[in-house]
From TrEMBL:
Any one GO MF annotation of this record: carboxylic ester hydrolase activity
Residues annotated as signal peptide: 1-19
The keyword Endoplasmic reticulum is annotated on this UniProt entry: no
Domain Carbohydrate esterase 2 N-terminal: residue ranges: 23-115
Pfam families cross-referenced by the UniProt entry: CE2_N, Lipase_GDSL_2
Organism: Paraphaeosphaeria sporulosa
Name recorded for this polypeptide: Lipolytic protein-like protein G-D-S-L family
Keyword line: Signal
Length: 345
């Protein structure tokens, strides 16, 4: 049996041509799956494989995909996850990705084993990084309002982000946190914590600021920024209306910061389906966000920045009025088309 010990996993990745690869931002020092969409991928020749866990904290939902067939594991409460029983002896490709976000829990990857031999890394040459909030996470997607969001109801694999990336046959990273904003976090609940300008610099979602090392192999071709829903939120007018000029300037500043690490990437600013022009009265939030993004793109003259305008969602929604599966499915082709046109994909 081929075996990768947890302590030697980093070395094994190099020795076997990255046969077992982390997906998304996973700090190799901790092997902690935090961000939604993080996981592991590998191929093997044999009849079974197992992904072991050093530990599991909190609540975590994952999607296991073997040879294109997916299984939802709504609550990870075991020390490992194996390929389905009865798998034929042959070549297989495995992806394990988190459906739920960091604030619910983490999975620490341990041993990865197979009864056969590991194959080549199933890596795409295309890469997209998604930077967003609860919409990008997949908050409450599998629920129907009224409902309370849980790790089980989050459904990152069916978000606009993953659907768009999959349709473009692109690998992806997701850096997203519910309630987060660009200049201020949500007005609802107790958001606290850093805004995305700080959170984006972390390796794992709970790691220290500026811990991400920007590995060259993880450099994206496209960066999608889906922020603003929480910046605009006012919680029944209990905080000042967003200074749209400040938001525009912050968008410009953030893109310039990201460009220092991804100088060749193209950027896509997507408007929020949760923002409309009818509420709160007199704010025209959808129009204001669209203009802010358009103005930011204009100020970044010479930079490849594209504005993708999504329509406001309908009345069928998930938990806390978040976009449901149908809305995400409708949004994904709009974004995918914009990326394909800009990058020639």
């Amino acid at each position: 049996m081929k075996h990768f010990s947890a302590a030697a996993l980093s070395l094994a990745l190099l020795e076997v041509a990255q046969a077992v690869r982390f997906l998304g931002r996973v700090n190799p020092a901790t092997r902690e799956l935090t961000w939604a969409g993080t996981g592991v991928a590998f191929s093997f020749s044999g009849s079974s494989a197992t992904i072991g866990f050093e530990s599991v904290t909190g609540a975590n939902s994952v999607l296991l995909t073997v040879d294109g067939k997916s299984t939802v594991i709504a609550n990870v409460n075991t020390s490992s996850i194996s390929t389905p029983a009865g798998l034929a002896n042959g070549h297989h490709t495995v992806f394990l990705r988190k459906r739920s976000e960091a604030l619910f829990g983490s999975i620490f990857v341990g041993n990865v084993t197979t009864d056969g031999s590991f194959g080549k890394d199933p890596r795409s040459h295309r890469k997209i990084e998604f930077i967003g909030d609860s919409i990008t996470v997949g908050y409450g997607m599998d629920g129907v309002l009224p409902c309370t969001n849980t790790a089980e109801l989050e459904d990152n694999p069916n978000t606009y982000a993953v659907l768009a990336a999959n349709s473009l046959k692109a690998d992806y990273d997701i850096v997203a946190w519910s309630g987060i904003g660009l200049v201020r976090n949500t007005a609802y609940g107790s958001p606290g914590g850093p805004t995305m300008t700080s959170r984006w610099t972390k390796y794992g979602a709970q790691d220290a600021d500026n811990s991400y090392t920007f590995p060259s192999k993880e450099t994206p071709d496209a960066v999608v920024i889906a922020l603003g829903t929480n910046d605009f939120s006012v919680d029944n007018n209990n905080r000042p209306i967003l200074d749209v000029g400040n938001f525009t300037s912050a968008t410009v500043s953030f893109i310039r910061t990201v460009q220092t690490h991804y100088p060749k990437a193209q950027f896509f600013l997507v408007t929020s389906p949760m923002l409309g022009d009818g509420y709160p009265a007199g704010e025209a939030q959808h129009t204001a966000q669209t203009k802010a993004f358009t103005d930011a793109a204009a100020r970044l003259n010479g930079t490849k920045v594209h504005v993708v305008d999504w329509p406001t969602q309908g009345s069928d929604v998930g938990c806390d009025y978040h976009p449901n599966i149908a809305t995400n499915a409708a949004e994904a082709p709009i974004l995918a088309s914009a990326i394909a046109e800009a990058l020639g994909w």
